[in-house]
């Protein structure tokens, strides 16, 4: 049975992926956090766990040499377009140096398949569905720049060293266990506590939101379908305005949303919109849980954690 190593295993997506893959076989978890702090139950996976920074190349190489994974899913790094405007150096260190470190360790350990978690941020702004083969614009923020560089590094290792590589451009993921600084969580917290919901501009910015179970399904499909080099969008191929998101959360919570409008920060796109036809065709990707059901599940989780 194949062995899968996951970096960023204690994160929102990482911990959900660990739980899912443990049902299939051997999983190796790597994260900067101490194993006792691995969130959402990933510490109970039963597989090896390492407290290691992806930028520590010698440590990552030792883990690869010892565990000999067949597939590496690289989720480690920092996310957030707005946060990257404040701390660009940290984003470049974690997302670029960390990615190169893991790629080099994969090369030395003769890993069969490398999967990179990229981001919708590489596309910038688009009111129409974006496809994987369209030219990427100049990055609008440091986070987008680091993800574009990460993709270039992955392509180079595929073409020069023959590493089978899949890049997943993941859209706005939400669901139980997500970070408090994300929009869905912040909006929910504000509505539940009767505080104003902060909307940028007039609230008409649109986002393609992806429920966590759909995201995990897409990653699992990518694990099972290696390519020499391919790029796939993981989204829902549906958009909702930020204002509509607040309304939907208000409906599910059964409480009114007090809306507060503020200027749009620099570097944030007005719209994100995924074309997922390639992932459907080549990966049999099928985001079966729709936005309304996903929001309902998230709200139930949120209520349960507040009891």
Give a written overview of the molecule:
- The structure is a single chain.
- The protein has helices at residues 12-21, 57-67, 81-86, 88-109, 142-161, 183-193, 212-224, 242-253, 277-283, 291-305, and strands at residues 4-7, 27-31, 49-51, 71-74, 113-119, 164-170, 172-174, 197-200, 206-207, 209-211, 229-234, 240-241, 259-262.
- It is globular and about 55 Å long.
- The chain is 41% helix and 18% strand.
- The protein is built from ten helices and 13 strands.
- Strand 1, helix 1 (12-21) and strand 2 form a beta-alpha-beta unit.
- Helix 6 (183-193) crosses helix 8 (242-253).
- It has two domains: 4-174 and 212-237 and 273-288, Rossmann fold; 183-206 and 239-271 and 297-305, UDP-galactose 4-epimerase, domain 1, CATH 3.90.25.
Cα-based radius of gyration, to the nearest Å: 19 Å
Question: Which strand order spans the largest sheet, edge to edge or round the barrel?
Answer: 3-2-1-4-5-6-11
Tally the structural domains.
2
- Derived from helix and strand composition plus strand pairing, the structural class reads alpha/beta
Overall geometric form = globular
- Count of runs of 4 or more consecutive helical residues: 10
CATH class of the largest domain: Alpha Beta
Q: CATH superfamily name of the largest domain?
A: NAD(P)-binding Rossmann-like Domain
Known CATH architecture of the largest domain:
3-Layer(aba) Sandwich
Q: How many DSSP E strands?
A: 13
Q: Would you tell me which CATH topology of the largest domain applies? A: Rossmann fold
SSE sequence, one letter per element: EHEEHEHHEHEEHEEEHEEHEHH
Beta-strand level of the residues, as a percent range? Answer: 15-25%
Give the helix level as a range of percent: 40-55%
Low-pLDDT windows of residues: 35-44
Give the end-to-end Cα distance, rounded to a whole number of Å: 41 Å
Biggest pleated sheet? 7 strands, parallel
Mean pLDDT: 92
